[in-house]
Amino acid sequence: MRVLVIEDDADAATFMVKGLRQAGHAVDHALDGAIGKSMATSGGYDAYVIDRMLPQKDGLSLLEERRSEGDETPALFLSALGEVDDRVAGLQAGGDDYLVKPYQMQELIARVEALGRRRGPTNIQTTFSVDDLEMDILARTVRRGGKKIDLQPREFRLLEYLLRHAGQVVTRTMLLENVWEYHFDRLSRAGRRTRAIRTPPRRRIAYDLPSRSAQPDHRCGGGARGQCAGFEDQDRGDRADLRCAIHRRILCSGRRAGHAGHGYARA
Hints:
Radius of gyration: 20 Å
Number of helices: 10
Structural class: alpha/beta
Oligomer: single chain
Number of strands: 11
């Protein structure tokens, strides 16, 4: 199953996401109601796990809006508010189940899987393609133009996340939450920690970028031509091209006109 967890508590989110992934489910995480609604609107989820008390937009309002828009994805409310009136309010807002904190992970997994059975069998997408780039999730392979590209586990997850969200705006915080598994309890802290850990991924991705002459039309945001292709590396094959594409989409996006400093990348 593909599950969207909307939870603003960092420790609770880490525990929940880890448990669901260990049970074999694909999990995305949103740290507030506004981001959660945006990710839910993209579709493709088999179940939602929603905390009631969220910043930006509370869980009840979020689900009520999704139901009014025709979204019938099963949803489980997870909250410390456990009185009868609280549970009834969650179910009346469109929730299919309600679990009170604290809870046992085995029970949460069982309830989420029960929601999936109610919805019936779903077609889980295991292959993705953009132009001549192909990814097979089950075989753990990536090919470009028929040639196999070897990626490190983190690189594979990063590319998978971008392909799953093709055509959508993907923020640095979303990538850190769902690829690097950094969980933030406040947006301000997210911004500070994002800046603190940007450098190591940049060095790894830029290691074997093609030379400037190999990318004559490349621009990073509003910078000079070939700005991110300053490494004179002899290997200019498919892996270098793919890493350069990831670099352009994610790490250089903060300098784009109109989005400076916000770190937006479009998958």
